[in-house]
Amino acid sequence: MPDHAGHSSNATVAFRLAEAFRRHGVTLTFGQSLPSAFHLASPHLGIDQKVYRQENAGGTMADGYARISRKVGVVTAQNGPAATLLVPPLAEALKASIPILALVQEVTRDATDRNAFQELDHLGMFAPVAKWVRRIDRADRLDDYVDMAFTAAASGRPGPAVLLVPADLLTEGAAPLSSLLRPRALSLGRVPLDRVVADPAAIAAAAEALAAAKHPLVVAGGGVHLSDAAAELAALQERAHLPLATTVMGKGAADETHPLTLGVIGYVMGQGSRTQALRPMVERADLVLLVGNRTNQNGTDSWKLFGPETRFIHLDLDPMEVGRNYEAMRLVGDAKLTLAALTEALAARDLAARQAARPAIEREIAQGLAAWRKTIAGVTTRDAPLPRPERLMAELDALLAPEDIVVADASYSSIWIANYLTARRPGQRFLTPRGIAGLGWGLPMAIGARIAAEEAGSKARVVCLCGDGGFGHSWAELETLRRLELPVVTLVLNNGILGYQKHAEEVKFGEHTKAVHFTAVDHAAIARACGVEGVRLERSADIPGALEAALAARHPVLIDMLTDPDAKPPISFYAGHYPEPF
Prior knowledge:
This protein has helices at residues 13-23, 36-41, 55-69, 81-84, 87-96, 122-126, 142-154, 167-170, 200-212, 223-227, 230-240, 279-283, 335-347, 352-376, 389-399, 412-420, 442-455, 468-471, 477-483, 499-509, 523-529, 543-552, and strands at residues 28-30, 48-50, 73-77, 100-106, 132-135, 160-166, 216-220, 244-246, 261-264, 287-291, 311-316, 329-332, 405-408, 430-431, 462-467, 488-494, 533-537, 557-562. It is an alpha/beta fold. Belongs to the TPP enzyme family.
């Protein structure tokens, strides 16, 4: 393209936009054809286009990419119906604090507010699901707005930003900077953009409280991953002899083989859960340090998890989350820096009582985990007439390496992973869409994660677990998986129902709606039709061999496992309502 050569004076706004994105570290975008001018210009700046099938999935791919790469994930879409499909993934990113930038083409400026084809009020539509939404109307302000967009996505509590660009502006000739502006050169596309440590006086007070507590507990959320603070969390756990649990999104923030790590707590502590026997330890905690934790409904078992006398220290970058549901000592700052400062402050205090209490805490955790392993021994090894998810998870856990990435769809899939797979190092990644927990996001999130891992040169394998209900939302992206030649292992739990909906309705109402049942579907056949290796699994004894082969493959593989529709993960809410399989 002659007008896209170097920094020539006849470059277009689209080319300058691609230049600005490249300055912020963007090496790839998730997008279909539009904005065409941008996608035609981008390869000249070394920006690759990863083409999705549907915008909902494209936004989720950008989410998965951002979580693994720690860069702002970029997704593009045209105005109208395509833009509307970005609303759900942006809502997830807003609640889960994932840095995404959506570049959305607008109708031409002369057609604005004239009922142009597919014209919508994008400013109003995106406002509730994004940190920042703006429209560029002037070529000389381009760098100004692009920098604001990346700053919004990557700074403070990360989240989605939306940049709206009229189609005719993109094809205009690039303009010189406004006389009021200066050239911009900084790169702002990584998170966290800024690291700030909490008030030293507050850190000192928190250290004093932790050293003096009789039964302290740390509960780590997804903010630990966002801050890349797993090493600092591990140092605090070891130096101060503190027992540590995580939320579902925080899974992997701590090494679950460490003798002071409980595992995932919250609404997933029913019979068969890793932490059921450890609930008394959580309930008697007199001081809880919350790290990067929203204290949301699921993470606190509907706010019933902690005892009435429990006090809290809350560390988070977002001052509005600190103390939101539990009044707390406030540590407002970056988790990585503040945890390091807190560990240093604790090292200067007398930790003899904490050290003396450690053997008993380790024994209690070991006994709780031993009781759990004994409880699930049968269900994770038996050759049931219909394969059980617990057996699949146990076999997968034995094959996974500490660097591998596991992605779950929403609903039961996230809970099977939380309880039955083991985080074997601080920082291991388990991706779950727990911001608003939309069905169908597992496969596209895994695609984004796989792309990020390959870009970083990682040897991590990527495994995605979906229920058949959720997977039905994203079948089309099997073609994307094949076209991009991504070696993702997709495991579909095919029980013919919407399990969570059916079982929860029965508990709440004593019956279920007709919406929970599906016609039988052969997902392996669908995969083969898309050029993806598809394996149909109907016997428990075939699970190990199928998993080994899939994990060793250098191409995408889908395993469609027929599974017991009565299999339920250990949700506290179900206790006493169903017979247990143990």
